[in-house]
């Protein structure tokens, strides 16, 4: 898998239908594309893996595997790329999907939460107030957790409305899923307080943490 990732990240093209004979966990990570546009963009673009049908299915399956049997009432995806994986996860679970949006896009009553994103920019996130009732168990999905600021803001919105981030019988609640949760201060806080699912094998995690 390490060799596949190194080879495909250097390749500008991909076979949208190719599936390896042996599908190890995270094989689809090799389909992701590196940033070629400079520091104003994320260091890696995962959206290329969504173009591969089996890659998308296996990615969603790996994200949901740790939550098998957990009581989940709704899936929430974070604006904007979290909408893709979140909606796909909701369809697999046969649950409703809630969009947590950047401020200014919802024309209904909302609750707002300021946050700082991975690039250090100050932003505001909103969620509609009529979708989460007290005790509703939410699985939060985003594409990536780098500094943790965006995911933590989404957690705060859900919990301020009385929702539970997909509670399980465990002492701490569950409910955060992303392709990668980096070993940053914010990423560690989320791992310590919530049950998490991600797709990066342990052998590759240090490279992802170093943005390699």
From TrEMBL:
One Gene Ontology BP term is: purine ribonucleoside salvage
User: Which keywords accompany this UniProt record?
Assistant: Cytoplasm, Glycosyltransferase, Purine salvage, Transferase
In short, the EC number is: 2.4.2.7
Against Gene3D superfamilies, the record matches this protein to: 3.40.50.2020
Reaction(s) this enzyme catalyzes, per UniProt: AMP + diphosphate = 5-phospho-alpha-D-ribose 1-diphosphate + adenine
Q: Where is it mostly found?
A: cytoplasm
Check the record and name the SUPFAM superfamilies matching this protein.
PRTase-like (SSF53271)
GO MF, any single term: adenine phosphoribosyltransferase activity
Mind telling me which GO cellular component terms the entry cites? cytoplasm
Question: Which pathway does the database say it acts in?
Answer: Purine metabolism; AMP biosynthesis via salvage pathway; AMP from adenine: step 1/1
Q: Does the keyword Lipid metabolism apply?
A: no
Q: Where is this chain's protein located in or outside the cell?
A: Cytoplasm
Cite the Phosphoribosyltransferase domain residue spans from the record: 71-162
The entry describes its oligomerization and partners as:
Homodimer.
Stated family: Belongs to the purine/pyrimidine phosphoribosyltransferase family.
Identification of the protein by name: adenine phosphoribosyltransferase
Q: Which organism is it from?
A: Dromas ardeola
């Amino acid at each position: 898998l390490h060799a596949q990732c190194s080879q495909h990240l250097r390749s500008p093209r991909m076979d949208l239908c190719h599936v390896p004979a042996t599908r190890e966990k995270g094989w689809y990570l090799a389909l992701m594309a590196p940033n070629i546009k400079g520091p104003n963009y994320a260091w890696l673009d995962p959206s290329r893996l969504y173009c591969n049908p089996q890659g998308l299915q296996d990615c969603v399956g790996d994200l949901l595997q740790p939550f098998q049997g957990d009581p989940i009432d709704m899936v929430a995806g974070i604006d904007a790329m979290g909408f893709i994986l979140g909606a796909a996860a909701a369809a697999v679970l046969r649950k409703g999907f809630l969009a947590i949006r950047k401020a200014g896009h919802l024309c209904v009553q909302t609750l707002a939460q300021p946050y700082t994103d991975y690039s250090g920019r100050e932003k505001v996130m909103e969620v509609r107030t009529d979708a989460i009732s007290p005790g509703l168990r939410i699985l939060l999905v985003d594409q990536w957790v780098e500094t943790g600021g965006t995911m933590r803001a989404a957690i705060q919105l859900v919990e301020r409305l009385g929702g539970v981030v997909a509670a399980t019988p465990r002492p701490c609640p569950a409910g955060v899923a992303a392709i990668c949760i980096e070993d940053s201060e914010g990423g560690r806080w989320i791992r310590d307080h919530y049950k998490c699912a991600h797709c990066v094998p342990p052998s590759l995690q240090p490279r992802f943490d170093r943005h390699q």
